[in-house]
Amino acid sequence: MSQDIRIGMLGFGTVGTGTYRMLVDNREAITKKIGRGIDIAKIGIRDPKKERALDQSHFTTDLESIVTDPSIDVVVELIGGIDPAADLVEKALLNGKHVVTANKELIAKHGSRLVHLAKSKNLDLHYEAAVGGGIPLIQPLKHQLAGNDVIRMMGILNGTSNYILTKMEQEQADFADALKEAQAAGYAEADPTNDVDGIDTSYKISILASIAFGKQVPVENVFREGIRNIGITDIEYARSWGYKIKLVGVVDAIGKDAVCVRVHPSMIPGDHPLASVNGVYNALWLHGDFVGDVMFSGRGAGSDPTGSAVMGDLIDVGRNIVGGGSGSAIPYEAGMKVVPIDDVHSSFYLRLRVKDRPKTLGQISMVFGEYAISIAEMQMKTLPDNLGEIVFLTHRASERSFAQALREVENLEAVDQVAGVIRVEDKQ
Amino acid sequence: MSQDIRIGMLGFGTVGTGTYRMLVDNREAITKKIGRGIDIAKIGIRDPKKERALDQSHFTTDLESIVTDPSIDVVVELIGGIDPAADLVEKALLNGKHVVTANKELIAKHGSRLVHLAKSKNLDLHYEAAVGGGIPLIQPLKHQLAGNDVIRMMGILNGTSNYILTKMEQEQADFADALKEAQAAGYAEADPTNDVDGIDTSYKISILASIAFGKQVPVENVFREGIRNIGITDIEYARSWGYKIKLVGVVDAIGKDAVCVRVHPSMIPGDHPLASVNGVYNALWLHGDFVGDVMFSGRGAGSDPTGSAVMGDLIDVGRNIVGGGSGSAIPYEAGMKVVPIDDVHSSFYLRLRVKDRPKTLGQISMVFGEYAISIAEMQMKTLPDNLGEIVFLTHRASERSFAQALREVENLEAVDQVAGVIRVEDKQ
Fold first, then answer.
1. Could you give the CA distance from residue B260 to residue B250 in angstroms, rounded to a whole number?
2. Is the pLDDT of residue B377 over 50?
3. Nearest CA to B377 among B238, B250, B170?
4. How far apart are CA A207 and CA A157, in angstroms?
5. Are residues A287 and A143 in the same domain?
6. Using one digit for the tens of pLDDT, what is the confidence trace for A12-35?
7. For chains A and B, what is the number of CB pairs under 8 angstroms?
8. Which of B285, B311, B330 is the last residue in one of the domains?
9. Burial of B129 (0-12, 13-18, 19+ CB in 10 A)
10. B232: domain CATH number?
11. Same domain, A37 and A143
12. What confidence tier does A355 reach under pLDDT thresholds 50, 70, 90?
């Protein structure tokens, strides 16, 4: 058998160790599938003093030396973030190395450019691990589903938020406590912004949209709202109407050449397949014009599942090296037209704290009526201190109309506080 | 742009028309993804008098002329069955044509040989549509999940049976009525054997097992039991204990180099993701050593979803033609070691019609005890005519022990009839 394929790995954290262990555990089968062995020849790290599972001779703090090393065939980038990952990946490609990366931010922001660069040099740039951890999503979208016009995609793509929302629901915990639990369990970082404010999801849904629609979605055009304002009260009302609250990334095709991409909590009907995706699991639900509804689910993060995705990419890159066929990716252009959320129509959940006195409900209804927003469901109850709670589910209305109505409702003297607003996925 | 890729299609039934319509509807996007156009140049059919959506000049009844035509690049085989499909596919490969097929029986029985033949001639042989209709299954197993040792797979892979079982459950219909409904709705054929006796599922699960474990599973070694004996009574008992009854294909890794592959109805715990796969939907649930649990679901049959899978394969084959990289599949050998079901351990559901008299229950329990089979749950009721019904859920026991115990129970004078036996997937 010819010489092993030499890997240079950048970063050796959670995903790196998972990938390394998978190679060690399943080496024989992996070698057979590629037709050649894989050798993790060099690993670039920041802190040389940390304990590692491997011999020190593999490690270097000089990451640049890896991406320029003529003996390295494939660079596996697992640092995350833009700086210095973007430069290193670009240099790796310029130096003729295939790249496998798990870096969602990098691909969301620079995917089009880097895929073009790879293609121009007949190299592979694979990034299955960037979205949905171990769940095959990117490549099925690129290949098996490629004949479809995608009409809609909706995904639970952030395990941390889903863990928190599941905890809140199952243990009647409030957001702060559930977040603490997630941090204690190692599912959330000390600064949870990336996860709970939907930033992570916005990268991932952008990547999926870019592949499905063939142009890169500018991340700054993705509407984004996180889960910090979700209360157990909202989860309870949702349940009473047969819904679960999930943080979702949504892509809707708008006409022939535009999309709307958004990240926000949604009330998902209990019988929708996404409603039963709990804890750290991720899932993508997709509707294509020919395939109809398809769903993929599994572990969206963690050392082993993400390592599994990196290894799947490495096997593909390896097969291409052995059999020919590197650089066969179809590049996508930049500049996808993204329409703002204003024109999207949804149903809405609205929870108001009101002053408990005559005409309150009438005044609110009048405002809704002015904006042609009709009410589908309502619940009302008395709170202490002469206050009340009114909760509405509306029929479908545009974001714009609803936002305008909400502003007027908020200004009503009878309304003490807008306590919760959540978009609602309609039941079938 | 260079010359179109010329397709010769064998068969123009449900899947052929779906594939054709998809090409017409989404031609621009498909052409862009391949980098060259697709031309369905010739279509081989049996009956030249049937009305067709296309100009007559495309059609020929001389199928052989298609697979030997030097101007054809890719043969799409949609006839099904072995004869004459096997010969035609082989001739197509020998004549240097790539092949896309939806033929599960062909791949289950001759996959290893044909993939080797394709590989030896640097050709692609793709068959995503053979399993799970539009759901990406084959390629994700071959690629993104390829680094995993698969521990277990369980799939609902036959839409007809799942439609029938769902009807039975939702409308309290018996098997015969649900079958008639399925036939009227076009989901079941006049002779439903292939579907309801698990033959179709046995081909599909064999193919998945062959890919996951790298050797072709001899179909004759797949244990197979259909759904004809499932009664609404069984479905009701299953529900009372929190289970659904589904026809599943199951693959278990046995040690390092063997598998057990089986097809039979199973009681699936209500919270298992497969339990909510209803109607004509299909799904595959998989557990890999690194990826953990993954599930794929969607429409497992029909013109459009299966056409979507054929088109996905065509796009891949086309990209390889344009970009280089044809024939990169990893062939798998024949002769997977398949162990018989006897040593598999399951829990069992057993429904007995008994004579209503003293000691009946005691005698049955004694037999179970002799074979070390312990009872987890039991329900008992009186039937007319001095009969009774006893229903058991056992703890895990080997097929062999259970079968022996069952034979003795059946011979007890007090037992009038073994009315139902179903394997049970344990709750987590």
1. 8
2. yes
3. B238
4. 12
5. yes
6. 999 999 999 999 999 999 999 999
7. 210
8. B330
9. buried
10. 3.30.360.10
11. no
12. very high
Name residues 61-80 of chain B within 8 A of A (Cβ): none
- For a pLDDT cut of 90, what percent of chain A falls above it? 92
Answer yes or no: is pLDDT of A42 > 60.
Answer: yes
Nearest CA in chain A to B311: A147
A175 is a domain residue = yes
Q: How many Cα neighbours within 13 Å face the side chain of B13? A: 11
SS3 B119: helix
Q: Is A335 part of a structural domain of the chain?
A: no
Indicate whether B18 and B73 sit together in one domain: yes
Q: What is the pLDDT of residues B329-355, one digit of tens each?
A: 888 999 999 999 998 999 999 999 999
- Residue B335 included in any domain: no
Q: What is the Cα–Cα distance from B391 to B379, expressed in whole angstroms?
A: 5
Same domain, B207 and B240: yes
Residue A290 touches chain B, beta carbons under 8 Å: yes
Question: B65 in helix, strand or coil?
Answer: helix
Contacts of A358 (CB under 8 A, 6+ apart): none
Instruction: Provide the pLDDT for residue B164.
Output: 98
Q: How confident is the model at residue A1 (pLDDT cuts 50, 70, 90)?
A: very low
- Chain A, residues 246-285, CB within 8 A of chain B, namely 271, 273, 276
Domain count, chain A: 3
Sign of CA dihedral A115, A120, A121, A124: positive
For B327, the closest chain A residue by CA position comes to A323
Amino acid at A53: A
One domain, residues B290 and B308: no
Put simply, the answer to whether A319 touches B308 (Cβ < 8 Å) is no
Instruction: Say yes or no: A285 and A144 in one domain.
Output: yes
| pLDDT tens digit sequence for A193-228 | 999 999 999 999 999 999 999 999 999 999 999 999
- State how far the Cα of B300 lies from the Cα of B135, in Å rounded to an integer: 7
Neighboring chain B residues of A292 at a CB cutoff of 8 Å: 134, 298-299, 304-305
For the domain that residue B310 is a member of, what is the CATH number?
3.40.50.720
Nearest residue of A to residue B274, measured between CA atoms: A273
Place of tokens 């019609």: B353
pLDDT at residue number A50:
80
Domain enclosing residue A350, as ranges: 342-424
Residues of chain A neighbouring B270 (CB-CB closer than 8 A): none
Residues of B tagged active-site: 204
> Is residue A176 pLDDT above 80, yes or no?
yes
* A336 in a structural domain: no
Residues B143 and B287 in one domain: yes
> Residue A352 sits in a domain of what CATH number?
3.30.70.260
Confidence of residue B153 (pLDDT cuts 50, 70, 90): very high
- Best of A148, A156, A211, A277 to substitute, by most chain B Cβ atoms within 10 angstroms, is A148
Active site amino acids of A: 204
Interface contact A297, partner B, CB < 8 A:
yes
Residues 28-57 on B with a CB inside 8 Å of A are: 29-30, 32-33, 35
Largest CA distance in chain A: 85
Q: Does the pLDDT at position B20 exceed 90?
A: yes
The reported pTM is 0.96
- ipTM (interface pTM): 0.94
B103 and B17 in one domain?
yes
